[in-house]
Amino acid sequence: MSFNPYRQDAPERLQSLINQSREDLDSPAMKWYVSQQSPTDDERVNAIDVVTRIEQIASEDPYLILIQAFDLPEQEKKLVLDTAGVLRLGELIAEEYIEP
């Protein structure tokens, strides 16, 4: 999410991947659990509101479960989740899956 073209096109690529997998598997109601972490804070891409755009896609798809994981433990590196971050993300996804 630090590269302008990637952040700009991410919501549409996500929707395309979901749609195509459902079509390929002949499963139009297949649920997708998508986690979204806080986008990289970088002045070169901060003007692209990827959070709102992905929220919009999720709001239009009853089988897309968006898990906004914006409260992960602080990470030492900008683009890498450490063990604590991975474990917390797993807990958030499991909670949503088990208790929708």
Can you offer a commentary on this structure?
- The structure is a single chain.
- With 100 residues, this protein is an alpha+beta fold.
- It has one domain: SGNH hydrolase (Rossmann fold), CATH 3.40.50.
- Helix content is 47%, strand content 12%.
- The chain has a two-stranded parallel ribbon.
- The two termini are 28 Å apart.
Features:
Rossmann fold, 3 helices, two-stranded parallel ribbon, alpha+beta, 100 residues
What's the short story on this structure?
With 100 residues, this protein is an alpha+beta fold. It is built from 3 helices and 2 strands; from the N terminus they run H-E-H-E-H.
Write the layout of secondary structure elements.
Elements: H1 4-24, E1 32-37, H2 50-59, E2 64-69, H3 83-98
Helix pairs in contact: 1-2
Determine the mean pLDDT: 91
Reported by name, the CATH topology is: Rossmann fold
Shape: globular
Radius of gyration, Cα only, in angstroms? Answer: 15 Å
CATH architecture assignment name: 3-Layer(aba) Sandwich
Low-confidence stretches: none
Distance between the termini: 28 Å
- Helical content, roughly? 40-55%
Q: Helical region count?
A: 3
Question: In percent terms, what proportion of residues is strand?
Answer: 5-15%
Report the strand count.
Answer: 2
How would you sum up the major sheet?
2 strands, parallel
In what order do the strands lie side by side in the largest sheet?
Answer: 1-2
CATH class: Alpha Beta
Class of secondary structure makeup: alpha+beta
Task: List the domain count as a whole number.
Answer: 1
* CATH superfamily label: SGNH hydrolase
| Secondary-structure element order, N to C | HEHEH
